[in-house]
Amino acid sequence: MSFEQLQQQVDFIHEIDKVKYIQRKTKLFNSNRNENDAEHSWHLAVMAIILSGHANDQIDLLKVIKMLLIHDVVEIDADDIFLYDTIRSHTNTDAELKAAKRIFGLLPQAQADEFIAIWEEFEAGITPEAKFARSMDRFEPLLQNVSNNGGTWKEFNVKYNQVVQKKSIIKEGSQKLWDFAKVLIDESVDKGILLKAEQQ
Amino acid sequence: MSFEQLQQQVDFIHEIDKVKYIQRKTKLFNSNRNENDAEHSWHLAVMAIILSGHANDQIDLLKVIKMLLIHDVVEIDADDIFLYDTIRSHTNTDAELKAAKRIFGLLPQAQADEFIAIWEEFEAGITPEAKFARSMDRFEPLLQNVSNNGGTWKEFNVKYNQVVQKKSIIKEGSQKLWDFAKVLIDESVDKGILLKAEQQ
Question: pTM here?
Answer without folding.
Answer: 0.94
